[in-house]
Design brief:
By secondary structure, this protein is mainly alpha-helical. Helix content is 68%, strand content 3%. The protein has one domain (6-42, 88-423, 450-498).
Amino acid sequence: MALLGAQLVITLIFVSLIQKLSPHFSLAKWILCSTGLLRYLHPTDDELRQLAGVPKEKSGRGKDKRNGYTHTEKSSSFHIPRCLDIQLETTKITHYDVLHLRYFTEYQWLIDFSLYAAIVYCISETYHFFVPIKDEVNLSMLWCLLVIFFAFKLLASLTIQYFKSDESIGERSTCIVTGFIYLLIAMIAVILPERILEVGLNTAYDKFNEGAGKFLAEQGVSNSGPASKIVLLFFIAVCCGIIGAIFTFPGLRMAKMHFDSLKYCKDRKLLKIILNINFAMPFLLVLLWVKPVSRDYLTTRIFSGMEKPLMESEMFEAMRLYAIIFAVILRICLMPIYLQAYLNLAFDRVEDQKKEAGRITNTEFQRKITSIFYYLCVVTLQYAAPILMCLFLSFMYKTLGGYSWSWKTNILVAEECSADLDDLIPATTTETPQVTEPIEPSIVQVAESFHLSLQNLKSVFTEEVYRGVLGFATWWTVFVWFASSSLGMFYQTYFTNKT
């Protein structure tokens, strides 16, 4: 029996494609350089001197006795009025501009690898739609897991930067406070009954303990009893608090870009509606796991004039998966609009500075503009990484949880799997085994032994276990995705209007 089969072929093909195509095509570069994004250019020193009326210093290396520095040092820095009327020029972002941006390599790797992982997953799902999974290891789950790991690692590294800098005391405190708040919310969520929040953690716990007990008994290991449920739930809540902490500033950044995008599209009503739908979609996804307002309403309640509910249970599960994919695709399509809203911060800074009194140095003014473009990849990572985590968690939730993209095929798949299991049961014979001399195990025998151990391990990690763990993980990432951005939107709306 093939352990990998077509999965290994698909994986090897795409590993080769990554090596061949990555130097020539990059989705990450295309998003930044081919979607019409414009960056703002700061004025040169000569332009600032001309606007501010600062005379150009004479060349020379003599030392100014009154000020204690040379003429070249003095000419490199000068003061201009803050209220100076400066009009910034714009230019399209090119491939050469983004090569030296901070976190560009990490951003490019995450986006491009996610694209290949999504293609591998789609091909794998298409293959197994026509050829149901029997004993093959689904390697597309490994691709999805790697994307989730890379996205989490990058968000964690961006959050750690706030703890390394001495100037980020406010950001550091915000991460700690929000982490503890999310920990408290997660502790409440994990103990909610299934009739309210249907994530399946209780069922997953019972099935895991049952399967683990049988597995240990078959291996001859004494079982001291089920693991403490309170300890496991507390560990899950701690992980949820960490995820909430690293999602805090991506959510705040998303809210800022959404607020600015609405400001720049006041005359485009349709785009404004689409942006608001995009912002509200995570909240609708969160409600799909709240049983009284989603499953009970759509699959149990019978409205007047109808003979049956609006949806079947299988149809509801498929609809929930499609809703997540739609929300992710919508947010990815609107990414250039949000990134342009971020780049427009350079223009907003100059306009706000015109209302201030006093003077500013030319280098400080130029740094204020160039820093916006310098952190473009950081902002893009904060925008894209939470989206990718939600998307690939939903992929794993669908596949490992045994769900289907089409509600009509669930029964057919179940019947085919049951028929396959009947074929796998060995037929009993009355033949007496022949006595043979002991021989060393061959490669085939070792592979069959490993396959048997893997099959026994599947009895521990059943579909119910995956549905509980991955279902809660998917719901939680969507929840903190929305909660963090909502907190940032409240801050932008309230405090911006106050100022």
